[in-house]
Design a protein that fits this description.
Blueprint: H1 6-10, H2 12-18, H3 22-30, H4 37-94, H5 100-103, E1 115-121, E2 126-131, E3 139-147, E4 150-157, H6 167-170
Antiparallel strand pairs: 1-2, 2-3, 3-4
Helix pairs in contact: 2-3
Length: 171
């Protein structure tokens, strides 16, 4: 299969030296030929690629700065999932939500990287996630509602901006 010799095309002088064609190297260095049509097309494609890549580099940091806070919120909501499972099991057995005295039995399943605390507030019927570092002290809540004999959960922000919630929780 025929292919371009890219070093010879774009770095002709250096390529001539590498191939020990010193006469051509000196001639090319001092009297370069005008680019042919194929060279001009290749140069235009390279310029278009460089423009597209530099545009991506300009936009990427802004996109990532929004991504990282969202992942912190997702990780906090996953930590709330363990409590949700415990409340769902309690509701399945007793067909009601737990009282404050019964809610003491629900335990955190280990520290989460971005969640400072995850607690079940029986009085407000919600699981409250309090964040650390990036959102220090800010909170998100999962509210439990008894609808026609079935438990349904909605996610609401307390202090965290709504845009950081995953799209499936914004409902």
């Amino acid at each position: 299969m025929a292919s371009w010799n890219w070093p010879a095309l774009f770095f002709s002088t250096a390529w001539f030296c590498y191939r020990r064609m010193h006469g051509y190297a000196w001639t090319n260095f001092f009297l370069p030929l005008p680019p042919s049509t194929s060279t001009a097309i290749a140069a235009a494609l390279m310029a278009a690629f460089a423009f597209a890549f530099s545009s991506f580099i300009a936009v990427a940091p802004a996109a990532y700065s929004d991504y990282h806070p969202r992942m912190r919120v997702v990780e906090g909501l996953r930590a709330a999932g363990a409590f949700r499972k415990q409340v769902d099991e309690f509701y399945g057995k007793h067909r009601r939500l737990p009282t404050p005295d019964e809610a003491v039995q629900f335990r955190d399943h280990g520290p989460a990287q971005n969640a400072h605390s995850v607690v079940y507030d029986a009085g407000k019927r919600m699981i409250l996630v309090t964040f650390r570092e990036g959102f220090a002290g800010k909170r998100v809540a999962r509210h439990a509602e008894d609808q026609n004999g079935a438990l349904s959960w909605t996610c609401r922000t307390v202090d965290v901006e709504r845009r950081y919630l995953p799209s499936s929780y914004r409902g």
